[in-house]
Amino acid sequence: MRRVAMAVLLALLVAAVAPAQEKEAERLEIAAEVLNEILNVPENVPQDLLDKAECVGVFPSVLKGAFIFGGSYGRGAFVCRSGENFTGPWGPPAMYRIEGGSVGLQLGGQATDFVLLVMNPKGVNSLLRSKARLGADASAAAGPKGRTAEAATDLYLRAEILTYSRNRGLFAGVSLEGSSLRQDKGANKKLYGSNVSAQRILREGAVQVPESGRALVNSLNKHSPRNLSD
Hints:
By secondary structure, this protein is α+β, with helices and mostly antiparallel strands. It contains nine helices and nine strands.
């Protein structure tokens, strides 16, 4: 009788966990689609900047209304290059949230996709905090696109995080100063099945790339297989 009860309990737990994992898996799959679409069009993220990025974040379909009424946010994921000095292939994704600040002012009432490039180890360290405010904890700037990157100013060179948006098919650098990045601990637990921090996911290789995250990671490995930063 006890075995039957345990089997029923196990089945209920599996049934409860599966939908949660599916939700995070779908978010990763959409993030991969957004990144592929952006990287496969002219005048996108400059290749030289992508090749120098230590981490890349993708936040699909962030809505303005979520910020107007408070408490809501956009959700996405960051992926970092592996290895102590970020010289290895891209590793597993960590789920994140982007909140408040100037985000709502940039959206114009439409769903907007955001891509963030983390350009140096200091930016990564800021990212690994439980919460990092852009412009305060991490210096941020609207990223240049296409050939404009050739005329990189000190602003671009000093920025820890470069930010981009896509709205109504238009892709451009966008200022996200005042917005916050927060580890989505609940989503990471659902995705990996245990409490695992962004530090362990992105820098310590504590988990493998989940099946749902392979398209996102493969896209980065395809478009930027080597880290060309100094």
